[in-house]
Structure of 3-methyl-2-oxobutanoate hydroxymethyltransferase:
Amino acid sequence: MSSHASPADDSSTRARKPLSLFRLREMQASGEKIAMLTCYDASFARVLDEAGVDCLLVGDSLGMVLQGQASTVPVTLDEVAYHTRCVARGNRTAWLIADLPFGSYQANREQALASSVALMQAGAQMVKLEGGGWTAETVRFLTERGIPVCAHLGLTPQSVFALGGYRVQGRSDEGAAKLRAQARELADAGAAMLVLELVPAPLAARVSTENPQLLTIGIGAGTACAGQVLVLHDMLGITRGKLPRFVRNFMAEAHDVEAAVRLYVSEVKAGRFPHPEHHSY
Ligand SMILES: Nc1nc(=O)c2c([nH]1)NC[C@@H]1CN(c3ccc(C(=O)N[C@@H](CCC(=O)O)C(=O)O)cc3)CN21
Ligand SMILES: CC(C)C(=O)C(=O)O
Ligand SMILES: [Mg+2]
C-alpha cells in the first residue's frame, strides 16, 4: 500500500473501526472531543455514522421529537427498545447508547437490570439513566454485571414535574456541591460516562477534572466536557417552538443533512461548539 492517501482513502471517508469504550477513553486522553447526537431510526443512523458521529443516543427525547408528547415521562421501555433495534440496524461503527425511560429502573436494581438487558438485546452497547444519590447502587449493580452505564446529572427531564420546569441546575453553592458529590459517587459506582445537562460551564469543567475516569458529555454545559450531545432534530432545525439556548442549527450553514452533521462533528472536534457566549450558562 502506498503511504500517499488518495482522496478516496481520506480518513473522513475511510471505513471506521467500530468504536469501543477503550477507544473513547483514548480519545479523551488525547484531547479529541467526542461527538454524540441522538438518533431514533436506521436511515439517520447510517448517515450519522458515515458523517463521523462517535456516539448515537437513542434518547427518550423521542417522546417529544417523534411522538409529540409534552415531556419524556410517557415514553415506555418497549418504545426505546424498538427505536434501538432500528438504529442498531443502520449503525455500523458508532458507540450505541440507549436511555432507560422513566419507570423502567426506579423500582429496584432487578427492574433496572431487566430493562437494561432488554435494551442491550435490542442492540445498545451502553444504557443511560437519570439522577444521582440512589442511582449509584443501581449503577454498581449493572456495571458489576457487564453493562456499561452512562449517568445523567443536572437537568434530568424525567423529573421535570419535580424540578418545576426545564431550568439550569447547580447554580447555588449547595446545588453545585450536591452535583459534584453525586458525580463522584457515580464514578465510584462504575459509571463510564456522564451526561451533564444545563449546568453552569465552570461546574461542568470542575466535575470533568475531578473525575478523569468519567467520559463527561455536555449539553448546555460549556466546552470543558470530554464530548458534546444535541438532539438531532434541534441541530437540523426541525424542532418548532422556543429552543434551549444551547442549540445551534447546523442545517442553516449546510446544504444537506450529511453536511450539517459533518459540520457538527468538526465544530465539536475543533472546540468551536459550544460557543461559550451563545450556548453556555
Ligand atoms: N427537542 C428537544 N431538545 C432537547 O434538548 C430536549 C428535549 N427535546 N426533550 C428532553 C429535554 C428537555 N430539554 C430542555 C427543554 C427546555 C430547555 C429550556 O427551555 N431552557 C431555557 C431556560 C434555561 C434557564 O435559564 O433556566 C434556555 O434558554 O436554555 C432546556 C432543556 C432538553 N431535552
Ligand atoms: C438530550 C439527551 C442527553 C437525552 O437524554 C435525550 O435525548 O433523551
Ligand atoms: Mg434522555
Notes: The chain has one domain: 15-279.
